[in-house]
Amino acid sequence: MPELVKKCPECAGINLFWNRDKGEIICKDCGLVIEDKMVDFSQEWREFDSEDGASKRRTGAPSTYTQYDQGLGTEVGQKADFMKLAGKDRNKFFRLRKWQYRISTAIERNLKLALAELKRVSSYLKLPKSVEEESARIYTLAVQRGLVRGRSMESVVAGALYAACRRHDVPRTLDELSEASGIEKKEIGRTYRFVTRELGVTILPSNPADYIARFSSSLKLSAETQSKAVEILERSQKAELTSGRGPTGIAAAALYVSSLIHGEKRTQREVADVAGVTEVTIRNRYKELLEELDLEKDIKKTKKRR
DNA sequence: AAGACGAAAGTGGTTGA
DNA sequence: TCAACAACTTTCGTCTT
User: Fold this and answer.
1) Which nucleotides in chain B have some atom under 7 angstroms from a protein Cβ?
2) Which residue segment(s) compose the domain that A145 sits in?
3) Helix A268-275 and helix A279-293, axial crossing angle in degrees, nearest 10
């Protein structure tokens, strides 16, 4: 757990849970997501003996996709090289370098702009570094394959980010991406599908549970309500209520039911808004949940208690 | 008066001939 | 390439709290 946060700023609880993969710290008392943009300062390797440590330790900037040239820099040959060549070879050398220069500057110029945009959107959404890296990698591949042609750079950036989020189980909704990037939802979805298909990036359907922490915290629901929602999700997955359905809708319905059970009622409208679905969808899922999982008694119980 | 409910028609995407 | 199809949305009228 990084030292930045020791106490929950919302309820002053010290029962914090650090989800390292998602880069989130979650307060188990009030469910608040405290910091979801963090850098992992710890070493990612372990030293077993002195020799091992020395060989794994590194200095210098790491190679990274968030720099437009991957932090390296490429050039065909150095000036000193062509002094050794003569005649034909020398011309060939210049020609190659010229081409290399033209191609690489075009791509690099594009990348430079695109990665700036990518960082902007990513920091707006407070995405973890790992997702930013992944999306930069996807974008770089897309440019190299010429997939950006005919599409706006921004939409491909948004598509790459969306894909990277999904791959890292840190799903953001298309609505959120759309708001952050200023690109239409449709457009993002289209480029997202196109790019992932062309690059062969396999994406698993996202798990509704991955949305719970975030939705729950923006609805200010308690940790019990949140874990109840996750429990409901697990049961509904067993009952095969989840396949084919939009994960956000299911997550929203589970949270809604859970809020009723714990007497922290939120309206369908409120839940629908944070989840980016309509009330109707929540109602449909909600109805299925009640029918299949026999939850009415739990709701009635809390009603009687008042 | 606000929220919940449900019917009906419309949208964008997938699938399979 | 087209039509059938499922999921979800929009809209709107009615019932409940």
Assistant:
1) 2-8, 12-14
2) 106-199
3) 110
